[in-house]
Amino acid sequence: MNTAATPERRAAQRSRTFWKGTILFPGGLRSTECTVRNFTLQGARLDCGGVGDIPDHFDLKIPQKGETFPCQVIWRRLPEIGVAFVAVTATAADSLTEKLRLLELQNRKLLRRLNEQD
To answer: Per the database record, which ranges form the PilZ domain (predicted)?
Structure first.
């Protein structure tokens, strides 16, 4: 029997945590609570409880960090999953900025119409 320790494969040492997290499903129509068991700037280990239908890509909101991280699932051993944080590309950020600009224009038009009805 080999008693040697398993070599560490992570690029950065993870800190043990016991933070509340929220997995935000794509499209924003569903979310589920989780516990962030360990964390680095590159990824995390999440305890998802009995939830087995976590998508491969989602956003993870961590209130203690005051941030939301785009995630990709790297491994699954329920009830836990390992995730890597994915960098948001400039194109995706530009797309979101454009969507926000269009929604603000639409909001202003609707407010004008409401004011005209008064």
So the answer is: 8-97
Q: Is 0.90 topped by the overall pTM? A: no
Q: What are the phi and psi torsion angles at 105 (to 5°)?
A: -60, -45
* Domain encompassing residue 44: 7-87
Q: Is residue 34 part of a domain?
A: yes
- Per-residue pLDDT tens over the stretch 54-64: 999 999 999 99
Our count of domains for the chain comes to 2
Nearest to 16 by CA among 49, 40, 48, 32: 40
With tokens 């491969």, the residue in question is: 56
50 and 95: one domain? no
